[in-house]
Every structure is written in C-alpha cells, then in structure tokens.
Amino acid sequence: MAAASAFDKIELSLIRAFHTVITERSVSRAALKLQSSQPALSGQLKRLRGLIGDPLLVRAGNGMAPTAVALSLLPAAAQVLQGAQALFGGHAAPQSFAPGQAAQAFRIAASDYLDPLFLPELVARVRAQAPGVTLDLLPLTRDYDYRSHLARGEVDLVVGNWLAPPDELHLGRLVSDELVCLVGQDHAAVRNPRQWTVANYLASDHIAPTPLHAGGVGVVDELLQAQGLVRRIVVRSPHFGLAPAMVARSNLVLTTGRQFCSRYIGTLPVRLVRCPVVFPSLTYYQLWHDLTHASAAVRWLREQVRDVARDLARDLAPDRAPDPAAAAR
User: For the chain, which end, N or C, has fewer CB atoms within 10 Å of the first or last residue's CB respectively?
Assistant: First the structure.
C-alpha cells in the first residue's frame, strides 16, 4: 500500500523535472530548459528527494553532481518520457523551436578530425541564429563513453568518424573524404614520389590520434589490419589539431582526410601526398539517441551541424558537387 501511495503522488511533470535537473546538473539551467522558475523547480526537486529518499543532486566543487542513485534511475526516467511521447505525441501539436527566443544549453562531443574550421563555424552559426543558447563542446576522447552519455541525456550530439557506428543510435551522414598523407615539405615522399611505395609508407614514422576507446587502434589502423598491414607509429596524441605543426617540423606522416589536411596548405611548410595504400573513403557522422530524436531543438541543432559540414566541404571543392548528407531525421 505504501508503494501504491507513493506512485499516486508522481506526475509526468515530476519525472520530466527529475530527468532535466539530473542531465543539466543545474537547477537554474533546468528551469530555463523547462521554462519554469527556479523556486518551482526547487520545490519539485524537494518532492522527488522525499519520494526517492536520496539527495539526487549534491554540491561538487563549484558545481553540482548527480548521486549514484540519480544516475541509476535516469534510464528509467528516460523510458517513461519516451513512452509518454509515443503515447501522446501523435495527437499533440507539432513541437516547435524558435532559435531567436531559445534559452537552453546544447552539449556536443566532437573530434577535431573533420575540419579545423568545423567547430568555429558551428559556434558562429549557432550564436548568430540563437544568441540565447549556450554550447558545451566536449572532446571525444578514449575516456569519454559517448554511448552512455547519449543514453543518459548528458550529451545531445556526437560528431566523429567510425567504420561501423553503433546500431542503437540514430545517425546522419555528414561528408565522405579521401584519406591522404600530410608530410613536411622536405619529406622523402615529396622529393621522390615514385619511391613512395606501400613498403616505404609502412616503414615511415607516423603520428596518429589516440584511439577513441581503450584497446582500440583507430580507423586507419583498423583498415590496415584488414589488409594484413601494420605501420610504424612513433607518436600518438589526443591533440589532433596540433599534429600538422608536428609534421611540419619533423619527418612524421599524418594519414587522415583531405579536407582536414587542406586547411594547412599555405599556412605551414607541409605538403599533401597520395597514400600508397588503397583505402576506402573516410565517412563522418553525427550520432544521437532516441532520447532526443523527437526534440525540435535538437533537430534544429542537427541541421546546423549538417549544413556547416556540407558548406565546408563545398568551400574546398567548388567544382565538385557536395557529398549528399543524410537528413537530420
């Protein structure tokens, strides 16, 4: 009877408040997102603490952090909200998003492999259209479990490249790019292009990004392993944007997309050379979870990501049709 009594006290708005407060990790940001007042949301949080018997959100340094109990309950709250959306969404008025009046936070986890201008251009576009929106840009590193963060609503979008993106996530294809080699202007591959063979490529000193998951080797090395090949990596760095400067001052070889490398031609003493190994194109995606799939706000964000990626690719290849991008559905 006690459980039934507690159940009777729970409204859908309370579950939504719980989910938003825990994912935002801030009562003030959650209040903005829910278009509520901080006192009203604080009152809901107090009710939730009494019903669940846990503090849920506690002080951590200069901010707030969810408790272990709160994190364990977050997936269940997300399922309830998704179920409510499926039950009532088809009969409700279409959700809308007005970027000029919006005041909420978006979180994007992204690698910097796509294009060094991608994130600056995205920030500029979002700020121009939605000046009240805040952006939290998170590095996509080996220590960042993006699948769990998406499932818990702690990040809205993840942008990067994968040979096989996870099946449980929605994806939008951004661009496909040719794999090339970036080398210093005095590298042997520039001086003697005919001797730039598969054997010499594999024996060269390579710089590579730190893999995105423990035990991984990275996309390029996965492709090499599929052909029974192994290259000599002498530098691994999580700071991919610094790799071209390292290449410019050494005999290192960086193998990555042409779009990324092209931005440094003319600004650093580096050259683009073909890769002797035959590789398929490198494809970049944006990934998102069912949790935000129906959100008009996050759909708008996906459209900005898609358009920025497409425009940057077009700028580098004005005489070539842009790669078709999957709709941010």
Answer: N
